[in-house]
Specification:
It is a single chain. With 95 residues, this protein is mainly α. It has one domain (7-87). It is built from 2 helices and no strands. The protein has helices at residues 7-76, 80-87. The longest helix has 70 residues, at 7-76. The radius of gyration is 41 Å and the shape is rod-shaped.
């Protein structure tokens, strides 16, 4: 004897199965979105660190170049007294 199924009950089972699958899929999408956001935050942090490190290197390079330039000028530029005494009256300033 063949047993007939209630069409409404079959529809309820199908809708419940669809709903369960949909909820599972949405949970997976949310989890993937969280993972992607975490990866993006990490990448942004690394990018920011790289920018800060490069800025620090640039500032250090400028500071070093400026310091070297000042030291070279100090060595090359005699004091006015040494310059006057060094020319011993043969300079245009004394004539």
């Amino acid at each position: 004897m063949k047993r007939e199924r209630d069409p409404v009950a079959e529809m309820v089972v199908a809708i419940k199965g669809f709903g369960d699958g949909f909820v599972k899929m949405e949970r997976m999408k949310k989890e993937m979105a969280r993972e992607v956001e975490a990866i993006q935050r990490d990448m942004e942090m690394k990018w920011t660190e790289m920018i800060l490190e490069s800025h620090e290197r640039i500032v250090e390079a400028f500071g070093k170049a400026l310091s070297e330039r000042r030291n070279k000028k100090a060595k090359r530029m005699p004091t006015p007294e040494a310059w006057i005494l060094g020319c011993q009256g043969n300079c245009k300033v004394h004539s």
